Recover the amino acids of this structure.
């Protein structure tokens, strides 16, 4: 990985929470990534072995810091011996296109490859997450080639769509409060129109509710959704994914959590269950 | 509590993480406070009972957000049925004296009552933590009158000194990376000179290493200290407390944690052990 720089290095639950900055050729800018190495990644650890990797995709406005500082996921990753990789949510910096709103441009990459200007040059988060980032992570002898993916909100959309589009690549997938049908909700309509153009046919390739209809792999989807989420009815609408999964028999476990909102307090409350779910698949 | 306003309300580990703003008469300004109510605080909970309260005092530059968003303490408070109360670290706002540095003025109240100008009017965090805040918290039927106190860095200093100065008031005390001897280190010398004046005799009343020498209650002190803490040798110096405790036979459990730094990644890694320690004392 060219121009790799370690920005942070903190002991945490017996392992290390690091933050790296590196040059992304795919995105044409520098990117920051949080990497948690569990104790088992240390060659001196009595149960040392190459560790499976859980990729975490954050939501709108986030960077690599939100998940690593607020989710409390390191405890569970340490218990299960899983590496956590949490990248920034979009290309950034001078020369990278941006927009006024929080829901388009920097901080809002939507985990796709943009085809329209001014976005097409840098906004290639799909290729970054699927190829460039894991190629770097998995070149480290600490990492095995067993992969899982999860995320929150826009990142839940990213996790679901990327897993559905890449059969065999991820052992498991889960999401918190995902945008399950971006083609049918305001956040997705705005972003997809900008990044992909007005032709809604092109949107289907990045819409989980569309992708399950033709999925060739029956990878179970685990989704947690807060019942008190302020974005539930307009932006998230998990029942659309539920109906699509039922129509084609795609396995979905959708858990509504009464009272929980869209914040990291929700994620923190249930990330342990998600990591246990991924651990079962990653070590099977 | 006059002018009480709830700013935040999040479901979290089966309970509620709230943030309140209220008018403090002692401090002469508005204050923000994080309050975590565990599931057992709900009258509908099968194991409902008035819950003991752990007061958490944060460090330099912090407000009520740092602990509630980064420590991951709610999981353990929910397990043990403990209310967590995390106030801001100083008076704030227009009309409240301040200084250029991060280590004096707003964000740096040092949990004492200032006697010198321009600080004496508002900087009365000792009275706020010992009297005004618990009077409000414990008026709620969700809270029992069993109290514990803990904190980090400047807040570890606050927890140790407040517990030592108030025998019988707290069932247990602990600290992460505390400033154990502020009279002998740069952070403390600067703050105490400003808030209390140049006479070092007045400083002893707010210095844990001095207070243990004359403590009438043998309340055990639990201290965790990261061995990789960037402030260890100049600002924290836990061996000064250790020597003072040994000299008078005051019980101290000082745990050095190799590799850990001064950040919330350290606190998150061991806050579960601290809350278990407090739970044993609070429920004895």
């Amino acid at each position: 990985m060219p121009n790799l720089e370690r920005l942070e290095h903190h002991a945490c639950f017996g392992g290390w929470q690091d933050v790296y900055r590196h040059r992304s050729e795919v995105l044409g800018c520098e990117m920051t990534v949080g990497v948690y190495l569990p104790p088992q990644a240390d060659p001196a650890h009595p149960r040392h072995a190459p560790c499976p990797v859980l990729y975490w995709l954050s939501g709108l406005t986030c960077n690599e810091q939100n998940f690593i500082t607020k989710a409390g996921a390191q405890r569970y990753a340490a218990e299960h011996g899983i590496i956590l990789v949490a990248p920034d949510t979009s290309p950034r910096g001078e020369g990278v296109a941006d927009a006024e709103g929080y829901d388009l441009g920097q901080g809002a990459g939507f985990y796709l490859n943009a085809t329209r200007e001014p976005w097409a040059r840098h906004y290639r988060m799909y290729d970054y997450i699927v190829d460039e980032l894991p190629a770097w992570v998995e070149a480290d002898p600490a990492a095995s080639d067993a992969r899982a993916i999860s995320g929150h909100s826009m990142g839940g959309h990213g996790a679901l769509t990327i897993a559905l589009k890449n059969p065999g690549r991820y052992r498991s997938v889960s999401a918190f409060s995902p945008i399950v049908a971006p083609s049918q909700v305001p956040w997705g309509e705005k972003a997809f129109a900008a990044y992909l153009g007005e032709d809604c046919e092109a949107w289907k390739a990045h819409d989980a509710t569309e992708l399950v209809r033709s999925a060739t792999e029956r990878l179970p989807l685990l989704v947690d959704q807060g019942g008190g989420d302020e974005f539930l009815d307009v932006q998230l609408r998990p029942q659309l994914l539920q109906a699509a999964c039922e129509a084609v028999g795609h396995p979905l476990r959708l858990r509504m959590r009464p009272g929980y909102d869209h914040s990291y307090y929700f994620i923190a409350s249930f990330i342990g269950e998600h990591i246990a779910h991924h651990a079962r698949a990653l070590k099977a």
Summary: Residues 111 and 158 of chain B are 5 Å apart (CA to CA).
